[in-house]
Design goal:
359 residues; mainly alpha; Tyrosyl-Transfer RNA Synthetase; three-stranded parallel β-sheet; 7 strands
Length: 359
């Protein structure tokens, strides 16, 4: 089996040897990271990995891949969306600044060797190693309404290990919450090399200091969970999502003291509202938040995109907790203006009431 693994990696080496012509200087460490194409990029992607990718493609020999086979572990019954999601992810990467002339960008399923290598490595991985991965149980809990307790999801770490080792990846950018996944990959590599000789490169973690961005329901922002604020969202969509966000469950009314350290909206403040961060935190704790929130009608017609956007408490009552993610996403990811956008619209039935009153 070791001989077969060497042959597979050798075929990949023929393709990946100096793939972008960047071998004129000193050798740089090879870094690899990938994304599941489950939907458009969101704020969690931007702060969690995209900014790192922009830096890594200049500092290392970078490999960025679209993990479409990984997407099937939870979206096996939604394959009609997969081609569009793959294309959308690539376009988002290009728009963000990922340069195919500098980094190697590829789709996982374009390498059939990945599937063959996964079969081989899966033979040596004890079942207990896979069952102890925290993500497996978290996925089952978060997506309990769907039948995703399948072999693919359980064997996710094996496929992940192959993604890294088949291109001889040396560094893998991860957050602290992902360290257990990479450590399992390292264990698998050590076990394989012990059985068949030094075939696979053991990867190392490249820790990311980016904070975890909460979704609108307080959990980690994820397209699969439907709690994301997307980079392509227009201001109206962002506004609707932020208004639905759960803040502090103890802060039912505007005057109630809150705890900004546990509030998902305040976590967004840290990224987008630094100029009013201290003021907002103090006002939240004292229950005396300044009345900076604007009414929806004024927000819709306001030309000032740097103005704060209102949120609401978990009980649905208005608070003056604010978030500038709408202004940021509009500035950084402009969307084409729709015909008739911004025109005032009468409420349903208003014209008929006007006719009756004029009689």
């Amino acid at each position: 089996m070791g001989r077969r693994a060497r042959a597979i990696i050798g075929r990949i080496d023929q393709v990946t040897e100096n793939p972008t012509g960047a071998g004129t200087g000193p050798r740089r460490a090879r870094v690899l990271t990938g994304y599941r194409p489950t939907g458009p990029l969101h704020l969690g992607h931007w702060f969690g990995n995209i900014q790192n990718m922009l830096r890594l493609q200049l500092e290392h020999e970078a490999f960025f891949f679209v993990a479409d086979w990984h997407a099937l572990t939870t979206d096996f019954d939604r394959t009609e969306n997969l081609p569009g999601n793959v294309r959308g992810l690539i376009l988002d990467w290009l728009a963000a600044g990922i340069d195919p002339e500098v980094a190697t960008v590829y789709r996982q399923s374009d390498l059939p060797e990945v599937a063959e290598m996964t079969l081989l490595i899966g033979m040596i991985v004890p079942l207990g190693w896979l069952e102890r991965v925290p993500t497996f149980k978290e996925r089952l809990r978060d997506l309990s309404e769907r039948e995703i307790a399948n072999y693919g999801l359980l064997g996710y770490p094996v496929l992940q290990t192959v993604d890294i080792t088949i291109v001889r990846g040396e560094l893998v950018p991860v957050g602290e919450d992902q360290l257990p996944h990479l450590e399992l990959s390292r264990e698998i590599v050590r076990r394989f090399n012990k059985l068949y000789g030094p075939v696979l490169v053991e990867p190392k973690a490249l820790l990311s200091e980016s904070p975890q961005i909460p979704g609108i329901d307080g959990r980690k922002m994820s397209s699969s969970l439907g709690n994301d604020i997307r980079l392509r969202d227009d201001p109206d969509t962002v506004r609707k999502k932020v208004r639905r966000m759960v803040t502090d469950p103890q802060k039912v009314r505007l005057g109630d003291p809150g705890r900004p350290e546990i509030c998902p909206v305040f976590a967004l403040h840290r990224r987008f509202s630094e100029d009013i961060l201290d003021e907002t935190a103090a006002g939240c704790r004292a229950g005396t938040l300044p009345s900076r929130a604007r009414s929806p009608s004024r927000l819709r017609s306001s030309p000032d995109r740097s103005a704060p956007w209102p949120s609401c408490s978990s009980a649905g009552r208005w608070t003056s907790a604010t978030c500038r993610c709408a202004a940021w996403s509009t500035r950084s990811w402009p969307s084409p203006r729709r015909p008739g956008a911004g025109r005032s619209r009468s409420r349903p039935g208003s014209s008929s009431r006007a006719r009756r009153s004029s009689r």
